[in-house]
Design goal:
- The protein is an alpha/beta fold.
- It contains 5 helices and 6 strands; from the N terminus they run βαβαββαββαα.
- β1, α1 and β2 form a beta-alpha-beta unit.
- α4 packs across α5.
- About 10% of the residues have low confidence.
- Pfam families: TatD_DNase (PF01026).
- GO terms for molecular function: hydrolase activity, acting on ester bonds.
Length: about 160
């Protein structure tokens, strides 16, 4: 990235799981750090350490659906069956047609089950807890960062 950067318009590091030590240099190049359910696969202390060095104006949240199924709070996940013909009956909160997700961990879910964009609240809750922020503060912060990154001069979406 150093050889082609800096990136004044910004660049997204999708589902960032890199080290805390890399963050300052990447941020100087214009990087935004997007966090998904994969963050829950890191040791909590390591994730917290890394998150705490990310500049607040560079934090983004994502689900990476249909991938990156969060590894926490499985009983409250929204899951989608890969078989689209069963989508309505198998998209549910807390349980699915194959099994009770509340009794499973992500590694034992049927592989036909996919992540859902509505699980962004689980990513939000987890990241907020690691940053010692309220969910509302982090939601607003992430929204403003996304609006700033994705808006353009004539855009109707502007950050404040």
């Amino acid at each position: 990235m150093k050889s082609t950067g800096p990136f004044p318009a910004g660049i997204i590091l999708h589902s960032y799981l890199g080290s805390a030590e890399m963050v300052p240099e990447l941020a100087k190049l214009g990087a935004y750090f997007s966090f998904s359910g994969f963050l829950m696969s890191m040791k909590e202390q390591k994730a917290k350490q890394m998150l705490n060095v990310v500049p607040s104006d560079r934090i983004l949240l994502e689900t990476d659906a249909p991938d990156a199924l969060p590894n926490k709070e499985l009983g409250s996940l929204i899951l989608v069956d890969r078989d689209n013909s069963k989508a309505e009956e198998s998209c549910s909160q807390g349980e699915n047609s194959a099994s009770n997700a509340g009794n499973l961990v992500a590694s034992t879910l049927p592989k036909e089950m996919l992540n859902h964009p509505a699980n962004i609240r689980i990513v939000l809750n987890y990241v907020a807890s690691l940053l010692d922020m309220t969910k509302e503060e982090l939601a607003e912060l992430s929204y403003q960062n996304a609006a700033h990154l994705f808006s353009y001069e004539a855009s109707k979406v502007q950050s404040s």
